[in-house]
Design brief:
309 residues; Rossmann fold; six-stranded parallel sheet; 9 strands; 53% helix; globular
Length: 309
């Protein structure tokens, strides 16, 4: 064993991080209000505890992967929150995509309790987290960030220190801005090819290693090709939460993002069409429906494919 690490939030991302930490030899203790999530941690070899306070008392370094600013406030300042932990010097690595206001409020509470909060969102999907293919976008106390190096190395492929607290979140907003557009572009490309009568597998195989590719095309293109949307590594609902944060941040800066704004509407349409719980790759299905295209309908294919000369 190389020490004990805490995990607060054991959802898609949190459970993947915990699994890699355990694989690297760390003992992992964790908490999640959902019983099934706590069971998941126990099944992978970790130990589920009764509260965030218990986790931070057992581990000097802990990760948090949480769904909302409300959840972060409860973890930090709730009746059994991190600030109720005895002693000082504990480090909490906040990995979620949340509004800066929520993270800064948590920072004030943590500093008041003699503890360190790092703002370290991760760039990558749940599938990438499962293989440790994440990039840490770190900000906050630089010495604390350095102390967390072995834990970071166990669950990510790259760690970037960006400076003062909050810069990590801003960089994550920028990263997700690109992810939003690239995913939508991948779906449009798949649709365009299928409407022209080209098989989705051939579209993917041809473009995945071409000048036109992107990391999102490589990650989500196979899901679009196979219509594999029901085992999500990032749901449409979660991405919509991120989109709201990015849009608000851009509005605060007075920064117009016309390409992003157009892409955002496709995800909103997906929610309206019932895709909220499915993988964000299902934006391809959203575009197919918007175009009245049925990739399995022989008659539709013959009438919508590109006319042959």
């Amino acid at each position: 064993m190389t020490g004990t690490i805490g995990m607060l939030g054991i959802g898609i991302m949190g459970s993947a991080i915990a699994r890699n930490l355990i694989k690297a030899g760390f003992a992992v203790v964790g908490y999640d209000p959902v019983p099934a999530a706590r069971d998941r941690l126990s099944e992978m070899g970790g130990e589920a505890l009764a509260s965030p306070r218990d986790v931070v008392e057992a581990a000097v370094i802990s990760f948090a992967s949480l769904p909302s600013g409300v959840a972060l406030a409860e973890v930090i300042e709730g009746a059994a929150g991190v600030v109720r932990t005895g002693g000082s010097g504990q480090i909490l690595i906040e990995c979620s995509t949340l509004p800066l206001s929520a993270k800064r409020a948590a920072l004030v509470a943590m500093e008041g309790a003699g503890k360190t909060l790092l703002d370290c969102p991760v760039s990558g999907t749940g599938a990438q987290a499962a293989t440790g293919d994440l990039v840490i976008l770190g900000s906050g106390d630089e010495q604390a960030f350095a102390r967390c190096g072995p834990a970071f190395a166990a669950m990510s492929r790259r760690q970037v220190y960006l400076g003062r607290f909050g810069t990590g979140s801003i960089m994550k907003y920028i990263a997700n801005h690109l992810v939003t557009i690239h995913n939508a572009a991948a779906a449009e490309a798949m649709l365009l090819g299928m409407k022209a009568g080209i098989a989705p597998g051939l579209i993917y195989d041809t473009l995945a290693d071409s000048a036109a590719t992107s990391r999102m095309f490589q990650m989500r293109g196979p899901l679009m090709r196979d219509e594999n949307y029901d085992t999500p590594t990032a749901t449409m609902r979660t991405h919509l939460k991120d989109l709201s944060i990015i849009s608000s941040f851009a509005a605060e800066l007075g920064c117009a993002l016309p390409v992003y704004a157009a892409a955002e509407q496709l995800y909103r349409a997906g929610e309206g069409l019932g895709f909220a719980a499915r993988d964000t790759a299902s934006i391809c299905a959203v575009l197919e429906r918007m175009n009245g295209f049925d990739r399995h309908g022989g008659a539709s294919a013959s009438t919508t494919s590109y006319p042959q000369s």
